[in-house]
Backbone:
């Protein structure tokens, strides 16, 4: 890492490619996982393969004993100051699978922040006791700021961004890619696929992060379906265009349903409303999936959702074999276990055990 070349104000104003270089370890898994842009095709393939190896090894008692022996000498802090159930439990389970001891802070009212301590000082404190910090915050850029801070400290431990403001959610994008790859592994992989995003795309950090990762695959086409106030932001569109990606933004979901390979539904992100209740004034009735919509989809199309859902996917759809959101959630545990294991350079040990025992 080369962050010592910049003070924080200089670093904050770097372009995304320049920030990625600062935190890069070549084609290896990054030391800090902050942005989806840190991942290229090489380390995506590596992480997905490692996740599959870990989930296969974990099916036996001997395999689980091996996995739990990978990192029993390391400690992880789960610092989740934004409400979460799936992401928190997914990371907790991932840590347990590969043997890390875990501490947590989920309510700042019972931490020293209640006494006026800054979040920056809290995180510096955690770095004295733990070997990795996994953090989720409403504050945009906090994970990035603390990664820069710790990289320039006497104890530069890794940080994993588990969601920052409306900006980035890189590990959700990793599990989404893993789900897509597993779903299409017998259909030529992710190349030549059309992916539709539906819902609150303007404020959906999962959509932003996954769109960036999809840039790594050939001939991907993206369709963004949303009411106009919730349509995908201009910076995402500009990034896609600069990479030569074919994309379209529309409010007509039914027009495109028959031609897409994957549908990525999202809920309305009204927790980000500037004025309480403003989201409720937008008509979202045309942006929901039920049995009628599934009938006009391809027979082998898949339906995804980062969860939690509200009413954008009817419960009856859960029984459709194309509904992948429960598998998607479970995939998150395995890809996050792979990410942490790779961060601590355990991939080769896993590979060796897999070759010799599976």
Residues:
């Amino acid at each position: 890492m080369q962050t010592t070349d910049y003070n924080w104000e200089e670093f904050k104003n770097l372009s995304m490619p320049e920030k990625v270089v600062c935190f890069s370890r070549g084609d290896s898994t990054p030391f800090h996982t902050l942005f989806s842009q840190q991942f290229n095709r090489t380390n995506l393939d590596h992480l997905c393969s490692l996740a599959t190896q870990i989930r296969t090894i974990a099916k036996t008692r001997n395999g689980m004993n091996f996995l739990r022996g990978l990192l029993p000498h390391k400690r992880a802090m789960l610092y989740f100051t934004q409400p979460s159930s799936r992401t928190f439990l997914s990371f907790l389970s991932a840590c347990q699978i590969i043997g890390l001891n875990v501490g947590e802070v989920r309510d700042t009212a019972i931490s020293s922040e209640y006494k006026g301590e800054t979040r920056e000082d809290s995180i510096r404190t955690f770095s004295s006791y733990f070997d990795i910090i996994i953090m989720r915050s409403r504050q945009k850029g906090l994970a990035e700021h603390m990664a820069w801070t710790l990289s320039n400290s006497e104890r530069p431990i890794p940080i994993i961004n588990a969601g920052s403001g409306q900006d980035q959610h890189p590990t959700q994008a990793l599990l989404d890619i893993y789900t897509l790859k597993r779903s299409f592994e017998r259909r030529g992989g992710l190349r030549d696929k059309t992916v539709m995003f539906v819902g609150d795309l303007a404020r959906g950090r999962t959509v932003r992060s996954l769109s960036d990762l999809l840039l790594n695959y050939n001939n991907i086409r993206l369709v963004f379906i949303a009411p106009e106030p919730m349509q995908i932001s201009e910076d995402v569109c500009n990034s896609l265009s600069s990479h030569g990606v074919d994309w379209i933004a529309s409010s007509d979901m039914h027009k495109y349903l028959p031609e897409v390979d994957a549908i990525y539904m999202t809920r309305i992100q009204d927790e980000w409303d500037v004025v309480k209740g403003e989201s409720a004034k937008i008509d979202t009735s045309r942006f929901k999936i039920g049995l009628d919509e599934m009938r006009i989809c391809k027979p082998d199309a898949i339906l995804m959702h980062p969860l939690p859902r509200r009413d954008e996917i009817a419960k009856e759809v859960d029984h459709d074999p194309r509904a992948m959101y429960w598998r998607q959630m479970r995939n998150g545990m395995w890809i996050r276990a792979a990410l942490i294991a790779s961060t601590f350079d355990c991939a080769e040990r896993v590979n060796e055990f897999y070759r010799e025992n599976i």
Observations:
- The radius of gyration is 20 Å.
- The chain has two domains: 3-169+332-351, 170-330.
